[in-house]
């Protein structure tokens, strides 16, 4: 791994990224750093970009927002499609503007792939015709709260999938249309029409990807619809295969097997760490607090409004888009469908308690996924350029100032002065013990597909696979 912490530091504005599992105090630290150093906060949370449902998405309170400028909160409608490309295209100009003006960007995550899209050049870049959109977004400063008055400045631009579909429909020839559409039961589906593609079976989409970009298809599970659609759309937008563009990124100066180089080499990571048992209990208590704050009412009100609009327009229910992906909707799905009378019955009580248990469980699982990602992306020795990662012990709130706030201020201040933090060392990186070649493998015994060596080896060692193997041997 190329160690960015070893390079000669110069006096310029760093990019500070605050990571950690949900419930460990990332927002609190972000606000305190922004206030101390005159910085501004960028939320890197895929659910907090949506307007409303503040409890469900665990947004900072209006009072907290007034303590420091916040960006990328409440910027799109709850059911609007918003991709990681849309996020990157809005966030990068804000970061660039802050650095140019000498202000400290503080990225608070959040959603793993949102953070990755900012730190590294891993997504397909826009062509020159997109620069006008980028310039419009560059001046956007969303939901900045100062002097007790909220000021909203909307980014005046189309979302990525809407813009690309319009442009391609205007510019493509008939030959292009034939090669960049998908035939489904005799009808042509535009590869840029994401809404239409969602109704196409994954098997059809995967076959199309195998035809136009077999290398990319080999590294994706046939059921991974989101990534399959993305690769097809890259081909439709650029007339180049997604796999070829990724190979180009990886071979660029500073690139690696995981993608392109660092976007902001002068950056550092502050990782809020917490003992697992303490974090689990904290997450349980947070769910209880969310319920006391009105979580159920917020879910019920939005669910009712959504269904009223859906029935009025005769559209089918779709709980896989927009803010419906937030933790909470799926867990309370059965309860939300009940009438008010049934919600007050024994059946309603049963569904309610089942929803609470499920919400606590998925919240813990989500926190563990966040931690695995941090370890794999930042603390495994690879060829990738990785910013220094500083661990901060947030286990005991009583020692917040001594173990979190004090060291964090010291690190940020050193970076602002162009110096390596004195007496504070970044976390060590470890060798990656298993090579994970991302290619699909099919288990003939279990009739299942797996992507990558790690998934494949885990499956071969699993009890289920061994049981199936014994059954086949007996037969």
Characterize the largest beta sheet: strand count, sense, and whether it forms a barrel.
6 strands, parallel
For the termini, the CA-CA separation is: 49 Å
The amount of helix comes to: 40-55%
CATH architecture of the largest domain: 3-Layer(aba) Sandwich
Which class best fits the helix and strand makeup?
A: alpha/beta
Number of domains: 4
Write down how many β-strands occur, each being a DSSP E stretch of 2 or more residues.
14
| Rg estimate, integer Å | 24 Å
**If helices are DSSP runs of H or I spanning 4 or more residues, what is the number of helices?**
20
Strand proportion: 5-15%
Kindly report the spatial arrangement of strands forming the biggest sheet. Answer: 3-2-4-1-9-11
The geometry reads as globular
**What is the highest CATH level, the class of the largest domain?**
Alpha Beta
Indicate the CATH topology of the largest domain. Answer: Rossmann fold
Instruction: Give the overall pLDDT as a whole number.
Output: 82
Low-confidence stretches: 1-11, 128-157
CATH superfamily of the largest domain: P-loop containing nucleotide triphosphate hydrolases
